[in-house]
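Holo prediction. Input below; ligand is iron/sulfur cluster.
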Amino acid sequence: MKAILEDKFGRRFQYLRLSVTDVCNFRCSYCLPDGYQCDSDRDFLSQAEIKTIAAAFAGLGTRKIRLTGGEPSLRKDLPEIIGLCANTPGIEQVALTTNGFKLPQMIGTWVEAGLNAINVSIDSLDPRHFSMITGHDKLNTILAGVDKALSAGIRVKINSVMLRPYSGTMLDQALAWLRHTPVSLRLIELMQTGDNQTFFKHNHVSGLPVKERLLEQGWIPVIRETTAGPAQEFAHPDFAGRIGLIMPYSNGFCDSCNRLRVSATGNLHLCLFAEKGLPLREYLQEADVGVLQTQLKALIGHKEASHWLDKGFTGATTHLAMLGG
Ligand code: SAM
Ligand code: SF4
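Structure of the complex:
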């Protein structure tokens, strides 16, 4: 029988989020409001190490790898990384989460390398709001990149973090865009991290009123795939796109957790908000897939039932750029 990564709560992990850098060029107000701060030398995972990680996870049942960061497109060897993940036996899907600033020029190369799906972060469809949130006046470039990604035939999702000052207009703008644009736009509740406590207090809004409004307007819940993310997704016959909600503060959010995370410096994070990362790097040196798999099977036993975010617990996560969201 094939070995599989399963924790003591019976959750199975078929989805790996792999951060390839924690560097970012944006200054999103909820993530890196002062921009990326390089406080020490960083030695990010090499292609050889990523190959070992991909092979070990795939051998334990992982079918989907999402590359993230920081901003993963800042790595010049991203096409090679996509390629080696896509060519790992057992990996059926390679996805990327990006702020999208390189989309127009790079999407063709990424798809050629084996990319199947992309998540682009667009927190507002109003160029002024977008620029205030991210520190960059790049909305139109990114939207042009989204069009190119759709033309390339890959699945496109949009991540939008809900922030109190913009939440009044956001849903209407999103729905107007989704009427004709075949993407899945996911509204994400702001999460509290070690660095954004005050910002969180002033800006967090619940997704529940949005869910009620969608149901009232005839949006229908869609059934999830086993490798799908944590979004509750809704479809409507009059709209080309779908809309999703990610509500980490709602009851039962962790029950269907199906993902593990590896940081850009090679630490396994059993949860986005785990107490600490568990170092894997020493098992990557010899490219020994079997040794790494033995470690992963032992470490999975420490995975907790919940992130305890509702109790204000943020673990070792100071901001999500360090791990990839
Ligand atoms: N730089 C890439 C990007 O922005 O798509 C990838 C990394 S970013 C950390 C991944 C996702 O996490 C983004 O969609 C971002 O909006 C989201 N994110 C970051 N900090 C967050 C927070 N405190 N709460 C909710 N989502 C957050
Ligand atoms: Fe950078 Fe993504 Fe964080 Fe924005 S959310 S600062 S793009 S890592």
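Residues 47-59 form the longest helix (13 residues). That is the main takeaway for now.
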